[in-house]
Design goal:
It is globular and about 55 Å long. The chain has an 8-stranded parallel β-barrel with strand order 1-2-3-4-5-6-7-8, surrounded by 6 helices. It has 14 helices and 8 strands. The longest helix is centred in the middle third of the chain and has 20 residues. The chain is of the alpha/beta class and 356 residues long. Helix content is 41%, strand content 16%. Bound molecules: ligand G3I. The site of ligand G3I has 10 residues, from loops.
């Protein structure tokens, strides 16, 4: 490229709504803007060569859907099993994909023996030990870790909008602070994230959730807790409107707390759409484009991960969100592993994003 060409590439934003050059993968389109595109996967997906190929082609980062959750890694107390997660980690390593850890601590998908122990005074030590062990096991292999997941729930009416969970019983976020310290000690190079949902729709509810999340991050920062990023879950709902300015402001407020942002878990529920597939796929794509073109304006947003790559494997179909009216189509590839309009929408939004 001539020096004038490289100056132009650096200083001029792409024309509004430009289509990306043909033949590029989401990984390549994102990388041109300084953004990482990635996807969630689960082990059963890797049994299909074609799905593995698509992931290797499209993604620069992967994250396991269930394999790192406590309910999988320590079903029996004291017997730790990282085999499934190791397979995913090895897949990442051999294909030069970055790995995102999900998740060290979550109130769901716990082994049966854990909840009763969280009620007593040794609960904190148990959490810290668990976080330490899993983060240490993957030391050096994980670029960013969701250290804690889904810790606020303003409907629980507790101080700060925190979720009613035994570790928070004393009304203090100490269990979160301790988890981050444990993770930082176990892998000092990993970027440590708090990941949560419910900031997009339903103005009243999302306002209280935004306030709770910002307060929590501010408190942790004030205490000197090593927290580096916020995972903004993007479970989108086609057919539901959202407040674009509210979204801009929230992402800017998070960034102002010296946090990087990863857009995590993107999928688009088509539960409110008609059955007709072309109509549905277009509405899903349009909604994702509308959301992403706002969210990707924020320069602190460095990664975008979809929660799966093909409609063949999506948690939404385990929930029958369309209530018997056809399978859900929330992801960039369809069940037969063909690209859908959602793929084009993500590609276009990434291509139009400002340079990082
Ligand atoms: O693999 C077993 C299978 O052998 C067994 O026959 C079957 C019977 O229920 O269960 C299968 O495991 C299920 C697993 O998904 C398979 O992918 C678990 O029951 C089921 O609980 C698990 O659900 C996962 C859920 O988190 C709970 O861990 C979903 O896949 C996963 O997509 C979902 O992800 C969450 C994020 O972590 C946090 N944000 C919300 C998101 C969606 O709920």
């Amino acid at each position: 490229m001539s020096s004038l060409g490289s100056i132009a590439a650096t200083y001029f934003p792409p024309p509004a709504s430009a289509a990306p050059a043909a033949g590029l993968s989401l990984r390549e389109i994102a990388q041109k803007r300084g953004i990482t595109y990635g996807t969630e996967l689960t082990l059963p997906m890797l049994r299909f060569d074609k799905i593995s190929e698509i992931i290797i082609h499209e993604a620069a980062m992967i994250t396991p859907g269930v394999e790192m959750k406590w309910g999988v890694t320590e079903k029996t107390q004291g017997v730790r099993y990282y085999g499934a997660a190791d397979t995913i980690s090895n897949f990442a390593q051999s294909n030069k994909l970055m790995l995102r850890g999900h998740t060290a601590l979550w109130y769901r998908n716990l082994p049966k023996w854990v909840p009763p122990l969280l009620e007593n005074s040794s609960g904190m030590a148990l959490l810290v030990d668990h976080v330490t062990d899993i983060v240490r096991h993957f030391k050096g292999k994980i670029v960013e870790w969701d250290v804690v997941n889904e810790v606020i729930e303003p409907n629980d009416n507790l101080p700060g909008g925190m979720r009613n969970w035994p570790p928070f019983a004393g009304g203090d976020v100490g269990y979160i602070a301790e988890s981050f310290h444990a993770a930082a000690n176990a892998d000092p190079a990993a970027l440590l994230f708090y990941n949560d949902y419910g900031f997009i729709y339903d103005p009243e509810r999302s306002t209280s959730r935004k306030t709770a999340a910002l307060n929590l991050i501010e408190q942790l920062k004030k205490r000197g807790v090593p927290i580096h990023g916020f995972g903004f879950q993007c479970h989108l709902r086609a057919g539901v409107s959202f407040d674009a300015n509210g979204l801009r402001r929230f992402l800017a407020d998070i960034a102002a707390l010296d946090m990087r942002i990863s857009l995590t878990e993107l999928d688009v529920s088509d539960a409110r759409l008609p059955r007709d597939i072309p109509v549905r796929d277009k509405a899903v794509a349009d909604h994702a484009y509308e959301f992403l073109s706002v969210a990707l304006e924020e320069p602190a947003v460095k990664r975008l991960l979809t929660w799966g790559i093909t409609d063949r494997f999506t948690w939404l179909n385990t929930k029958d969100v369309r209530k018997g009216d056809g399978a859900s189509r929330p992801l960039p590839y369809d069940e037969d592993l063909n690209r859908k309009p959602l793929w084009d929408a993500i590609a276009r939004a990434l291509n139009n994003a400002p340079q990082r």
